[in-house]
# Entry
Amino acid sequence: MNKTQNNLRLLPRRFKKAAFSLIALTIFFVVLIFSEFVTVEKELAKTVTSSGILLSFLLLALTRDKVEDELTLIIRLKALAASFIYGVGYVVISPFVNLLFDGEFINDEMGTEGLLLTMFLFYFGMLWLMKKNR
# Structure
């Protein structure tokens, strides 16, 4: 391992299992709520669900792959940069699109959780696409 790989300090691979377990627990929580087996306030359920999904996505993004070399680090960095540009572009462009279409085009209720969720999904999509086309 060279100096760049040591400086990145990604989490060990076992954290992927923890992230997938957290996703499974969050989905199980959602199923319990929709089946009305457990009664929980709607806001609390939304907060717990979004926090669980975002935390598991963060763990997945920060966990190292089985083979972590210089090319993988570059791909990871490019996907992160593309995701950041997507998020900034969305925040900058959405008010103009809402103004142009009288607020009917983009849903303003997406909020911070929605933006982070779409940025993570964009990151994972770009990472998968770039790894596939090495």
User: Anything to note?
Assistant: The two ends are 21 Å apart (CA to CA). The helical segments are 3-8, 14-34, 42-62, 70-100, 111-132.
